[in-house]
Amino acid sequence: MPEPIIQQRHRDFMDGLTRQVLSDYGITCNIRWYSGNSCNFRVVQNNGHREYLITYGETNCASHYAMGFREYATVRYVWWGMDGRKGNKALWAIALHECAHAIQEDRGYLRKGAHHDKRFCDILFELIGKYLYSKVAPPWTLLEDAEFL
Ligand SMILES: [Zn+2]
Fold first, then answer.
1. Which residues of the chain have pLDDT under 70?
2. What is 8-134's CATH number?
């Protein structure tokens, strides 16, 4: 049986990056992993308290890892031609995308039908520059990513 593409080290990479970004921005947010095919940010109610929740789906991450993560059309330009990257760069891009939603909500910018608007793009663009892949990727990604060069 082939080993699953999303392993503990991949989850640790995305968890660690997500926690670092949210902590730097002073945001409290839970992170949940499940086996499924969706990554998203949501505001949930927990005993009457509003809580932020980022959900990462292993199947979804594995698919983007193998096929590349392509942004929504309105967001693509912020990646400066780096959109659609595979491997750990896809996981990095997913984590920054969901963190940008948490920051967007924290600033009161997250509105129905405006999830991937200009303000979202500005936040994501800031994150890409601040958490450059070359700065935040663990050493083991160097070997693994060579497969996708
Ligand atoms: Zn989104």
1. 1-4, 149
2. 3.30.2010
